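FW: tagging you since you asked about this chain on Friday. Here's the raw sequence from the shared folder, copied in full. Didn't touch anything.
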Amino acid sequence: MRILFVLLYFTSLSVFGQNLSNLEINEMEKAEIKGSLLTFREFLKIPNDGNYPQQIESNLKWCEKTFQSLGFKTTKIISSKVPHLYAEYIVDPKKPYVLFYLQIDGQPVDKSAWNQSSPFEPVIKNQKGNEISWQEIEKKIDPEWKIFARSASDSKGPAMCFITAFYALRKRNIVPEYNIKVIMDFQEELSSPTIADLVKKNRALLAADRLIIMDGTRHISDIPTIMFGARGIATLTLAVYGAKENLHSGQYGNYAPNPALKLAKLLAGMKDDDGRVTIPGYYDGVNITEADKKSFAEIPENMAELNTEIGIAEAEKVGESYQEAMQYPSLNIRGMRASNIGKEATTTIPNMAIAELDLRLVPETPGSRQISLIKNYLTQHGVTLIDSLPTDQQRARFKTLATLKQKEGSLPFRTPMDSAIGQWLGKAMERAVGKFLKVRATGGSQPMASFIETLHVPAVSLRIPNPDNNIHAPNENIRIRHYEEGIKMCIALLTQKAD
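HL: got it, structure written out here
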């Protein structure tokens, strides 16, 4: 493993960095970018699917060595047999404590879908999509080049920006303005199943005055972004049953009910033609104020351009704008299956039809309530919910049988936009990049509610990667310009007084 950072010690000449100007921050970043990119390359080479313990351990060891080289004290914390890494840097116990959350794992990969030899063999490409040799960065670094690799943007890129910024300060004997705690998560893409228990059992260790989340893509306008909330998530698997076995459609068509059709009708009834959920009470509690609408209007979004970019004729009518739509709970069909299609299609009536749903949640609409509303909807539409495969007695008695399996993942959170943490972070962003956006909440999910509720700490997400980063998909990438801006943001943040 190639680590370019070396151990350095503060001297008696150490200074605080509150007065670093934009010019000084830019010069500092330019001096470190080449070494940072080379270290980033080595970091990205480590496979990081959180389903595999050996991959978790490899990434943990890399992070442990790196943070120790920067003077951090590190501790490996086990929660439900899953390891996490905690690191702390104490400047002065009397100063505030800021906890940073770093996501290290990435989505599973299908190597055949990537336009390179491996998602874990990072490549640089220019604006035309042509591959650039890594040796080229010795001569010049074009900020418009992109680095392609799994987790380049989500979220080893942001983690590396933080690491580079801290190294840059340490190299110059500049002391951060507060005490730093870092928690590294190696299963975020699995909804961080052990984080809640970890936080509860390590409340004192993780205690902080503020929480900064180094995860997430910036706003579609490509302007540097700080995000004050995220929706939670719950997932459902709905299976509707038909006959005991698949039936010949010629012999049993017009006689045996088709569970795929029943499922389709149930799903279709959950939303109207404008995309609004029709299930009674689904949006109860959500209140969008005039002040909220004003803040949405200040964000540069052109819905016509957005529709063209993603390829739709018109948006659903859940909110009056993209931003407003993200403030409501959603109900999404993420997958359906009944039988084979294409060359594998057969003339059968399937014996079962399955739909996978995900519900994005907001603080006013907890997952347990939303799931209960969906269960009520199903029973009111003639569905008998059972716990396992139907028995002969159940098949003989009930017209429509179904199972509903549920899983509640990350909880929603929202920090007031006029809060002290927002003002503090805003001052740092002004020094780093000048113009930036403050966004009320993202449509995605982050496992932060456990920290917020257990530690009673306000949280804000620092958004670094480019909007066109292919997050969770093949050919994930981060543009070097955004990576550089991320380093600048972190330098400014680490030197922003936190009183």
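FW: Residues 162 and 490 are 6 Å apart (CA to CA).
HL: agreed, and The first helix runs from residue 22 to 44.
FW: great, closing this out.
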